[in-house]
Amino acid sequence: MTLPNGQIRVQEADVSNFADMEQDFSGDDRKLEVRINEKGIGAQRKLNDIQVIDIMCLYTPEAICNENFQGSDCDIENQEFITVINDKCELAIDETNVAFEESGVFSQLRLVHSGLIGAANFIEERYMCQALGSIKSATDTYAQISSLRDEHGADLVTILTKGITHYDTASDSEFEVCGCGDLFNSNSDYAYSIVSRKCATGYFSVGHEIGKYF
After folding, report:
1. What would the pLDDT profile of 24-36 be if each residue is shown by its tens digit?
2. Bridge partners of 173?
């Protein structure tokens, strides 16, 4: 995971939990070509249209206030504040698409909706990454997220928060992280990720988290 200071924290994962990645491409007769980008990096890309993936960017009330350098009780209906956080969503998606292009990834994201995560009185949990389970099951205060996803036809959902504190059980310690999502899980029911608004742009954390579903 990427920390807000740009450092990378590496933890060993149990590979037995990974999905079976083997796939037989022997019958795939689609041709590949090598395209050289502006930096001279060659990338193999299929000779058909780029796959467009629809994504929805939601944010918490605290993310709105924090992004606008306001206290947690700011007016989240202030149109200027909303414009600033919406612009953050758009820039995060634009940056991710640039990273995809430069890396030869055969996909582009299309932002289909950006808006508030749910109720105006929503309060971020202390360990927001642990909320992923409730988000995926559409329980309690997170029920509206699933409805919004269906309404806008989003393949993926990224949620911007004020910040993300992670609790590490192994070391019994807390530290701040940039984001979280399910590793190597392409099931659409799990296509939700959470990103700290501080890392959403400039750190490519939105692309990092949704890349786990690829």
Report:
1. 545 544 444 444 5
2. 168
**C-alpha to C-alpha distance for 51 and 55, rounded to whole angstroms:** 13
**Count of alpha carbons within 13 angstroms of residue 141, beta-carbon side:** 13
d(CA 194, CA 196): 7
First to last CA, the chain: 16
Sign of CA dihedral 114, 6, 166, 213: positive
Q: Which residues of the chain have pLDDT under 50?
A: 21, 25, 28-35, 42-47
State the Rg of the chain over Cα.
18
Count of domains observed in the chain: 1
Domain CATH number, residue 164: 3.40.390.10
Structure pTM? 0.76
Three-state SS across 103-145?
A: HCCCEEEEEEEEEECCCCCCCCCCCHHHHHHHHHCCCHHHHHH
Enclosing domain of residue 85 = 50-213
Residue 29 falls inside a structural domain: no
Token digits of residue 174:
């807390």
- Residue 175 in domain: yes
Do strands 42-46 and 32-36 pair parallel, antiparallel, or not at all (unpaired)? antiparallel
Q: Which two tokens stand for residue 167?
A: 């609790």
